[in-house]
Amino acid sequence: MEAFTDILMITIPALIVFFTAWVLLRNMIKNDQDKRRQELLLQNSRTITPIKLQAYERIVLFLERISLESLLVRVSSQDMTATQLHSTMLNAIRSEFEHNLSQQIYMSQQAWEVVRNARSNMIKIINSEVEKLPPDSSGMALSKSLLEKIIELEKEPTRAAIDYIKAEISRMI
Q1: DSSP string covering 102-158
Q2: What values do phi and psi take at 27, rounded to 5?
Q3: Among residues 92, 139, 140, 81, which one has the least CA distance to residue 119?
Q4: Enclosing domain of residue 80
């Protein structure tokens, strides 16, 4: 019986020391893993944030380039017919959009939808105004009609999209 008591007197303190060491080591390892995970997230954030901001910058540039005023200045010429101007404007919008398609990876789904809607609305405005004109109209007549339409609108679709993107960026930063 005395041997059993001696074993218990040795075993119980050893088990207490073992359990304490096990709990301490487990907590230290968990804290170290959490610290590494936080460092990794911070490092990813440092890498991704500039790329995201660059994507938003490119999309704002895209929206500025497809705004009617910018588009008309860039693609119209004096000798164009309304049909030629219409076609050139739509090709420019599609080309710009295709050039910036990859930016959607870095944007929120809502922001990308706003950009797509702005592009679609610009195309609808251009199409609706060209349909109102006689088939043999000049490009200047279409330009004038488009500018008048934009003045009528409370906010040009591209401007609304730019405002949305600016608000999203300010929430992100």
Answers
A1: GGGGGS-HHHHHHHHHHHHHHHHHHHHHHHHS-TT-BHHHHHHHHHHHHHHSSS-HH
A2: -65, -40
A3: 92
A4: 51-172
Helix (H, G, I), strand (E, B), or coil: what is residue 100? coil
Is residue 19 in some structural domain? no
- CB–CB of 81/142 below 8 Å? no
Please state the pTM of the whole predicted model. Answer: 0.77
Which two tokens mark 166?
Answer: 């600016």
Total domain count, the chain: 1
Helix, strand, coil percent values for the chain (each to nearest 5): 85, 0, 10
Residue 143 half-sphere exposure toward CB, CA atoms < 13 A: 19
**Maximal CA-CA distance, the chain:** 116
Which tens digits make up the pLDDT trace of 21-71? 999 999 999 999 999 999 988 887 788 888 999 999 999 999 999 999 999
**Is 106 inside any structural domain?**
yes
Q: Which residues contact 56 (CB under 8 A, 6 or more apart)?
A: 103, 106, 107, 111, 165, 168, 169
